[in-house]
Amino acid sequence: MLGDNPPGADNQQETKESPLDPNWICGFVDGEGCFSVAIHRNPFVRRTRGWQLGAVFQVTQHEGKRGVLERLAGTFGCGAVRSKGPRSSVLVYSVSSLHDLEERIIPFFRAHPLHVKQADFDRFAGVVGAMLRKEHLEPAGFDRIVRVAYEMNAVGKQRSRSLEEVLLGSSETIRQAPFRG
Amino acid sequence: MLGDNPPGADNQQETKESPLDPNWICGFVDGEGCFSVAIHRNPFVRRTRGWQLGAVFQVTQHEGKRGVLERLAGTFGCGAVRSKGPRSSVLVYSVSSLHDLEERIIPFFRAHPLHVKQADFDRFAGVVGAMLRKEHLEPAGFDRIVRVAYEMNAVGKQRSRSLEEVLLGSSETIRQAPFRG
Question: Cβ of B31 and A30 within 8 Å?
Fold first, then answer.
């Protein structure tokens, strides 16, 4: 009784190598994707008060759905699928190479606009451009990028540090941080 | 510096009434959608031991993104966008009319297969077909549908009641339930 509906899955003929439809990718990224600028502590980066920036495009999914993240990686031709942590059942497809972001991810979403995350993408593309011009390595450029980063993803709600902490972090704090290596 | 990238948003010309691309919808539903069969207590339904079934297709989104859910409702031509609760910042687009599911939602996803949630959709379409044939109103059909429902959405992990509780719920339990109205 329940099994008598014809399977609608034309995609059963698809393999892990089949590229995904660009509009499907946009819908999936509008749901599960994230364009963000991570801010890490690195005491060696003295010109920017011990903070280091990293732009990253990510799509998360339960580990049971690894196949779709691998097809995403194959379609974009860059990035990697990894577990979110040693005890996590969540996988993350992520692209953090500035070169791959500039050459593959950003041109794709310029050609295929998003419906939900377009504003975050536009800011992200601006940050990647600025980082490629090395503006994030100087204090003024760093501060501008950090302000943009905090406007992204529901106005930085998920940030563990306040904007003030990052912008005002003194060299005193940096010297106190433990050096490794 | 950060604002000099050309906006990629061709969708700025789109309105709330513009239909969404079918492949974008599939990607978004593969991320944010849910095909499920809710199981409620209703002491008046004695033939199925006081349980009532309801098939529902839902897509959730933060309240700031109401526009995209309204476009989804407009594209499908059915369903409604509501808040998830009085204090919730989450909106839900949902379709629970068996007629709308059979006439609009199911034919759409038969024509445009999903990549992540195809197995759940196939089970859901089977349940809707069975409910349209009123099989859920008889004990044997009800039990078959409940077993399928518990196989959906990561094997019923989010269920508040065990499968045994629903299948073995006695008329004693039903009589003890408070009657309303």
Answer: yes
Q: How far is B177 from chain A (nearest CA, A)?
A: 31
Contacts of A111 in chain B (CB under 8 A): 8
Amino acid identity at A21: D
Domains by residue range for chain B, with CATH: 18-157 (3.10.28.10)
> Bridge partners of B90?
B62
Complex confidence, ipTM: 0.81
Beta-bridge partners for B36:
B56
Task: Write down how long chain B is.
Answer: 181
Q: In Å, what is the CA distance from B140 to each residue of B41, B47, B122, B137?
A: 18, 10, 21, 9
What six digits make up the tokens of A34? 């994230």
- Kindly determine whether residue B20 and residue A126, on different chains, have CB atoms separated by under 8 Å: no
Q: Considering CB atoms only, which of B2, B113, B115 is closest to A130?
A: B2
CB B92 within 8 A of CB B84: yes
pTM of the model: 0.82
Cα gap B166→B50, rounded to integer Å: 9
pLDDT in tens, B26-70: 999 999 999 999 988 888 877 778 888 999 999 999 999 999 999
How close does chain B come to A175, measured CA to CA in Å?
31
